[in-house]
Design goal:
This protein is 95% helix and 0% strand. The protein is an all-alpha fold and 565 residues long. This is Sodium channel and clathrin linker 1.
Length: 565
């Protein structure tokens, strides 16, 4: 049913509805004189409905008149379109044949574009995965940095607590450790020189392997030509296989020797590192223990020095009082006071003797600690000598391996000579193969003539099949149109997905940039903590210098006490 006819039916139904409403309003009960308030409201509502219906009816009448005039115009246009359609059908029949090929090309291009879009989508997903993985790595790095900062803060607090317990003995032990580290550096430099020599040998071995591979490729090409052309190459192939087996055996032996050298170097390096770390740990533990003991002894010395100073002050006071008594020449009642002062002097001398004994005991302890440290240094030196002996043994093993390499190189030279002999034999075989190839080319020319005849027959059959293909193409046009629409929809969907993925990727990039900025700030804070640590170290060195000065003052005070006694 056309739209004009449907509009006519709608207009007729609205006219009937208007007539029914007029009859309803004319015969309505609210026309009577006695009307209640509720009926008046219903009447007002009904009048409003009637007015809206009348307005809608007028609008529909105008629309009906317009559609009638438009229908006449459409009829004239329809006739013109029929004429044009007949002309276009004739033209489309000619155009279809030309457009079919274009449609096939477009379909293939769209399929390739779809494949490219799939590949781009896969790449975008892979980039997103890598971005997420990188973000996870950055978060882990930030956590590690925060943990390191926390540890550094704890270390700084510990260092501030230990600054009061520093002295010259620690400096002597540090010099001993620096000497051990210098020796360790010398051994590591020797190991690095040995590694450089090993890399040189490995590079030479790689060049030799590359040459062997080129020789093998040439052999395989010669074998392929000989197998296709002549049976005489079988003997040469057997000889070459034997040579290849021997060469593979040599290469395997070289690889085994190289792996053994690497293992020896790794074992020696691991042993030296472990032993040096053990020695360093033991020395650090002993240093810490000695520092604690020395701090305790220093505290005891300070207490004893304070007691000595107090006793000296009391002795001086007693002597002054005695002098006053002798000068004033008092009577016998003052003898008791003199005896008390004399007793105080004796007590002070006794305390002085006790202090001297305690100082001697502390000095003996310090000497004993020096002896222990010298023994520990001698033991470390013996350990370093043993490590040097193990390194010399590893060098001897490397010299033996280098001799084996020279022997293998000589064998490889002999194999190359054999390969040259085999090449000469293959050249002779190639000459014979060329003659056979010329004969085969003549046979191929005869076969080509027969194939030309068959091609002509196939062309005639293809002409008949093209007409069938044109019919198939007309049927496929509709399907291609449908495929185009589906492809467009899929492309739009993929574009939206790609846009979403790009947005997500940009967000991830922004997040990674923020994490990088945060990591830079963390690095700056770490540098600040390192600077503070250096300042604390400088403070500890200043405190050590002050402590040495205090020790010198204590020694001078003890000497003065001995002199006065």
């Amino acid at each position: 049913m056309s739209p004009a006819v449907s509009q006519r039916f709608q207009c007729m139904s609205l006219l009937n509805a208007q007539r029914c409403l007029e009859v309803f309003f004319l015969s309505a009960p609210w026309k009577k004189p006695r009307i209640s308030s509720g009926c008046q409201d219903e009447r007002v509502q009904a009048m409003e409905l009637w007015q809206t219906a009348a307005q809608e009816l007028d609008r529909l009448q105008h629309l009906y008149q317009r559609t009638v005039s438009d229908g006449q115009v459409h009829d004239a246009q329809r006739q013109q379109l029929k004429v044009q359609f007949s002309n276009t059908n004739i033209q489309s029949h000619h155009i279809r044949t030309s457009t079919n090929q274009h449609l096939l090309k477009t379909v293939t291009e769209q399929s390739t574009e779809m494949e490219e879009l799939h590949s781009q989508l896969g790449q975008a997903k892979a980039e997103l995965r890598t971005a997420t993985a990188r973000v996870d790595e950055m978060t882990k790095l930030l956590q590690n940095v925060q943990n390191q900062m926390h540890r550094q803060e704890e270390d700084v607090a510990d260092a501030q607590g230990r600054e009061d317990a520093a002295d010259r003995r620690i400096q002597q032990l540090q010099t001993g450790l620096s000497q051990l580290e210098a020796r360790l550096k010398a051994t590591s430099q020797e190991a690095e020189s040995f590694r450089r020599e090993q890399t040189v040998w490995e590079r030479k071995l790689g060049e030799f392997q590359a040459r062997c591979t080129t020789v093998e490729e040439e052999k395989y090409e010669a074998l392929a030509k000989v197998r296709e052309s002549v049976q005489l190459a079988e003997e040469a192939a057997l000889q070459k296989d034997q040579a290849l087996l021997r060469e593979k055996q040599r290469i395997e032996e070289l690889e085994n020797a190289k792996e053994a050298i690497k293992q020896l170097i790794q074992d020696a390096a691991l042993r030296t590192r472990k032993e040096v770390e053990n020695v360093r740990k033991q020395c650090n533990a002993q240093i810490h223990r000695m520092a604690e003991e020395l701090s305790a002894l220093q505290l005891e010395c300070a207490d004893k020095e304070s007691q000595i100073e107090r006793s000296l002050r009391e002795r001086k006071a007693a002597e002054e009082e005695l002098e006053k008594v002798y000068k004033e020449g008092r009577a016998e009642p003052e003898f008791r006071k003199i005896d008390a002062l004399h007793q105080r002097c004796l007590n002070a001398e006794r305390m002085k003797e006790d202090m001297r004994l305690t100082l001697q005991s502390t000095q003996n302890k310090v000497k004993k600690m020096d002896m222990d440290h010298s023994e520990e240094l001698s033991r470390c030196q013996e350990e370093v000598r043993r490590l040097q002996g193990s390194l010399a043994q590893a060098r001897d093993n490397c010299v033996g391996v280098s001799d084996e390499r020279l022997h293998l190189q000589q064998e490889n030279l002999q194999l190359r000579r054999e390969m040259d002999d085999l090449r000469k034999a293959t050249l002779l075989v190639q000459k014979k193969a060329k003659q056979q190839v010329s004969q085969m080319e003549h046979e191929y020319s005869l076969k080509e003539q027969g194939l030309d005849v068959r091609v002509r027959e196939l062309e005639e059959s293809s002409r008949g099949s093209t007409s069938d293909l044109t019919r198939l193409l007309t049927a496929q046009q509709k399907s291609t149109q449908r495929w185009k629409e589906e492809a467009k929809n899929m492309v739009q969907a993929f574009e939206t997905k790609i846009a979403g993925l790009k947005v997500e990727l940009n967000r991830q990039k922004q997040r990674s940039h923020e994490l990088e900025m945060q990591l830079e700030t963390d690095h700056n804070t770490i540098a600040e903590y390192e600077r503070q640590l250096t300042e604390h170290q400088e403070k500890s060195s200043r405190l050590q210098r002050r402590l040495t000065q205090v020790e010198q003052r204590a020694t001078t005070a003890t000497q003065q006490v001995w002199v006065t006694s």
